[in-house]
C-alpha cells in the first residue's frame, strides 16, 4: 500500500485533533476547572472511532497505572498518545478503503 502526502497529513491531523482534545480534558481535570458534560460528547465519538485501539488500551489502563513508571498523569498522557496514534491509523485505513472502492467503481 503506497502512502501519499495526503495520507500522512490525514494521519497527523487526526492524531493532533484527538491528542489535543484529551490533553485539554486532562488539563481541566487536573486543574479542577469546570468541564460541562456536553464537552464529553466529542470525546466519546473520538474514542468510538478509534475503537480497536481504545478498547484494548483502556482495558489495560490499570496495568499502565500500576507500572507507575511515568507517574499518574504521565501514564494517562501515554495512553492518550497511543489511542491518538490508533485514531490516526483508523482514519488513514478508512481513507484508503474509500479511495479503493471509488477506484473500483470507475
Structural account:
This protein has about 110 residues and is mainly α. The chain has one domain. The protein has five helices and no strands. It has helices spanning about 5-30, 40-50, 50-60, 60-65, 70-105. Helix 3 (about 50-60) runs antiparallel to helix 5. The two termini are about 20 Å apart. The model has no long low-confidence stretch (mean pLDDT about 80). Keywords: Membrane, Transmembrane, Transmembrane helix.
The mean pLDDT is 81
Any idea what the radius of gyration is?
Answer: 16 Å
Number of domains: 1
Structural class: mainly alpha
Instruction: Summarize the biggest pleated sheet.
Output: none
Strand content of the residues, in percent? Answer: under 5%
Low-pLDDT runs: none
- Strand tally: 0
Q: CA-to-CA gap between the ends?
A: 20 Å
SS field, number of helical segments: 5
What is the general shape? elongated
Write the H/E string, N to C. HHHHH
How helix-rich are the residues, as a percent range? over 70%
Keywords: Membrane, Transmembrane, Transmembrane helix
Transmembrane segments: 6-27, 39-57, 77-98
Note the topology.
Elements: H1 5-31, H2 40-49, H3 51-59, H4 61-67, H5 72-104
Helix pairs in contact: 1-5, 3-5
Keywords: Membrane, Transmembrane, Transmembrane helix
Transmembrane segments: 6-27, 39-57, 77-98
